[in-house]
Amino acid sequence: MFGILTRSKIKKLRAELAETQKLASHFYKMKYDAEERAFVELCDLSIRMGVEPDVAAKTQQGIDILADVVLNRQYAFYLNEKAIQIYSQIFLLEKRRGTHDREEWLNEVVKKSGWEVVSSELPLICADLIEEAKERLSDG
To answer: Organism's domain of life (predicted)?
Structure first.
């Protein structure tokens, strides 16, 4: 009986995980649309107000425009974290134990549940780090 219930729970969690990962990927991809829309709207607001974009960004309208970008990104992060938590439950049910240490947590739970979602973000988020490493190695 326990085995059937456990398998059923794992199946349900895997379906929830797949849906959460799909949503997270969608919101990560939508981030670019939100940024493009905010860029255009902030430029328009700046022109209408006759001020620089950094000044327009501090107005209530500017804050509202930029809030969409931030909220979209935060929701994508939340969904990725939710996927990690779901996968943690699957790991616990399948292994019948928690993780032994931080390294196992990172390799067996975090990377397996969140890798697909964040891997496309690596070049963008880590662009400065990659460029600095490239410059350092080419200098020496």
So the answer is: Bacteria
Answer whether 12's CB lies under 8 Å from 43's CB. no
CA distances to 51, 71, 123, 132, 134 from 128, rounded to whole Å, are: 30, 23, 9, 6, 10
Backbone angles phi, psi at 99, to 5 degrees: -75, 155
Residue 57's SS3 state is coil
Of the candidates 82, 44, 74, 80, the residue with the CA atom closest to the CA atom of residue 61: 44
Predicted pLDDT of residue 140: 61
Of 119 and 57, the structure prediction assigns the larger pLDDT to: 57
- The CA distance from 54 to 113, in Å, is 38
